[in-house]
Design goal:
By secondary structure, the protein is mainly α. About 75% of the residues lie in helices and about 0% in strands.
């Protein structure tokens, strides 16, 4: 659940920065670094989940990985949409 929460937090963070007046092509500020920290903080959790998953229940593992991929795509959607 932690990576999904981090992805949704990154999504809200980008929307907050956009509504606060962030412009594309500008200097990379604190908002940029916080977004990437939220994205990179997911990696240990995802790798730990993959390493310790019960692969005899592969459908559940695959479902969790797909859900994480959707949440990550959801976090990057406003970045792509606003061309940040």
């Amino acid at each position: 659940m932690v990576p999904i929460v981090l992805s949704l937090t990154a999504f809200v963070w980008v929307l907050g920065n956009v509504s606060g007046g962030l412009r594309s092509g500008g200097d990379e500020g604190t908002g940029f670094y916080i977004f990437w920290l939220l994205i990179l903080m997911q990696m240990p959790f995802v790798l730990g989940y993959v390493a310790t998953a019960d692969w005899t229940r592969w459908r559940r593992v695959a479902g969790q990985m797909v859900l994480q991929g959707i949440a990550l795509s959801f976090a990057f959607a406003p970045v792509a949409f606003f061309k940040l």
